[in-house]
């Protein structure tokens, strides 16, 4: 694994460089030099300072592009074929967090298995970075497609349809994420409240009855404060798994052990003792692979209703783009081991990437 130490980057005497001119892009320089853009980015990112890392394109302040020696260019195909590509990390072996150009749509699939019952929910979710402040807190906008598929079809029961309709009040949802990629707060409670009047009217035009009234009453209590909305959303599997704080230091051994909290049951935090591990080399698809594996532990922060005495496993795998350090896909699975196991899974996979 290559570790960038800031004192190592006196590179002008050891590497060829290209002076970046106004109007240059990674693609235009690639064409001019006759070197693949991916190879230019890979070699530059291996030796540059962290602020100069190339993501989708050159950063505005970038003055020099670091180029490989000519002999490396001649034999680069052989080198790449014979030697695994090392993961490039930042200082203290930290996985860089570079969300500034994130505007990505994902297919999200939730699967719940219990005895002979299997429920699968699929939806498309867009994640967009909006801004950051001086304290390195980031603002993201989360948008959810209106079409939700439950077991392969549009909801056809009243409760499923009601749940899908009331969820519209939350989106677009704006959230606050810290410098490690961990979700910590919601930002637009006032906007959410202002949307409720119109959506409530649409619900009452279509649904009626005591169940609907109680459902609306419960939702209105939740919407009363930002804290209640945040508490309710903490059971959202997408937000909790996607913004899981994976952009941390992975130590010289590429792994560490740390407790992780996850809402295996709604509005109940389950604590797991988890081994966080990163593969030192890119996989065959050139992804950075991070695994989290652990078991439920009673740490006093919550418990599993009726299952605390059973073995409960937590397993997650993240596949990170090695150029942008953003999530390409991920899988998370929790198993409650009993005579008839209970399994909860979430699968997230990138649909497309929009370049800013």
Question: How would you briefly describe this protein structure?
Answer:
By secondary structure, this protein is an alpha+beta fold.
Please characterize this protein's 3D structure:
The structure is a single chain. The protein has 356 residues and is α+β, with helices and mostly antiparallel strands. It is 24% helix and 35% strand. The strands form three sheets. Strands 5, 6, 7, 8, 9, 10, 11, 12, 13, 14, 15 and 16 form a twelve-stranded antiparallel beta sheet that branches. This is LysM peptidoglycan-binding domain-containing protein. It comes from Flavobacterium calami. InterPro entries: LysM (IPR018392).
Instruction: Work out the strand percent.
Output: 25-35%
Question: In percent, how helical is the residue content?
Answer: 10-25%
CATH class of the largest domain: Mainly Beta
- What is the count of helical runs? 9
Order of SSEs, N→C? EEHHEHHEEEEEHEEHHHHEEEEEE
- Overall pLDDT confidence: 83
Radius of gyration: 23 Å
CATH topology of the largest domain: Lipovitellin-phosvitin complex, beta-sheet shell regions
> Between the first and last Cα atoms, what is the distance in angstroms?
30 Å
- Any low-confidence stretches, pLDDT <50, length ≥5? 1-13
Oligomer kind = single chain
Total E-strand runs? 16
Overall domain count: 2
**Helical/strand content category:** alpha+beta
CATH architecture of the largest domain: Roll
Protein name: LysM peptidoglycan-binding domain-containing protein
Domain LysM: 16-62
InterPro entries: LysM (IPR018392)
